[in-house]
Amino acid sequence: MIDLYKLHWSHYVEKVRWALDFKRLPWRGIDIAAFTKKEMRGFDCAQTVPLIHDTGTGVAISDSSPIIRYLEETYPERPLFPADPSERERVWQWMLRLDSTLGLYARRLGYTQVIMECPQTLAELFLPNFFGGLFARRGWRALASPVVGMMLTLRFRFHHNRQDRIYEQLEALLIPLVRRLERDDFLVGGQFTAADLTLASLLRPLRIVPHFSHAPSLQSLFVWQEQLFRTQGRDVTFPYEDAIRAQRQRSGSMRSRVSWMQAPDDRQAAPVERESLQVASNDQQPVSAWTVLRGLPAYLKLRWFSGVKKMPYMPAAYLGISRSRVLHRA
Ligand SMILES: N[C@@H](CCC(=O)N[C@@H](CS)C(=O)NCC(=O)O)C(=O)O
């Protein structure tokens, strides 16, 4: 039995959940308290989720890509890596590169979008069981959500999205991926691997960021992702996606136009990094309950004056395309 310590909406957790299901390994999920992580304190490894404890071997390990590599080495049936060593290494490098770029940037922009459009979701995600579910109730939720939002803003630097060029870096990363996946079905070799699983999982938060989810140039990437979800039996939407869609339908608008971006043709393509990575990097900044109030101006600015402008709500084109393709197949 494998215990998976998790925050259920985390895209890094979804990577590992998917790998466990793909390999048909028995596992059970343990939800952690996001701000204390007290359930994981006994384990001598980095205190991030996903973290697994394999009760069969006694191994405890965190960090999604090393976890998947451990699963592959310990339980080689239903492989997620190719047999060829050079292809294996390419899969590994894709995983580390996507963890260190796409995973971090998509997380920043996904939470930014939630803060801009439906911040009350934050209390539901982060404090579902605090004081017997008090903060999941309407009035309390409205009080608690900005505090969670301030904490997250400081931890992941949402207020510096513009100066850190997060939108631009993501575009530069995704456009070549689109080209590659329009040519081939998978990132490495001719089979589904942990590299594809990583890309499809880490892309999840961008499904609520209209700058990406609605970009005509990226529709085929989201169709590719959604078809993988459907063929592999993954949840197609996460609850925060449903919450933000409901909010958009109610208000008739979405925060979509990134006012400082140049027209696509004027942008410089960033050079693709090619150095070999050993570990994935992370971007969490230290924040304590005492320093959280420093986040108030940043949070308010992000919520009301982020420079991401309202547009009329419409569903992304890929949603219609994916569904009609699946219906067509059926
Ligand atoms: N590179 C790590 C990233 C894991 C990570 O950053 N997890 C977040 C959840 S998405 C976490 O543990 N957050 C807890 C915190 O910020 O204290 C991986 O691939 O597992």
From TrEMBL:
Domain named GST N-terminal: residues: 4-79
Cross-referenced SUPFAM superfamilies: GST C-terminal domain-like, Thioredoxin-like
InterPro entries: Glutathione-S-Trfase_C_sf, Glutathione_S-Trfase_N, Thioredoxin-like_sf
Pfam families found in the cross-reference section: GST_C_2, GST_N_3
Protein name stated in the entry: Glutathione S-transferase family protein
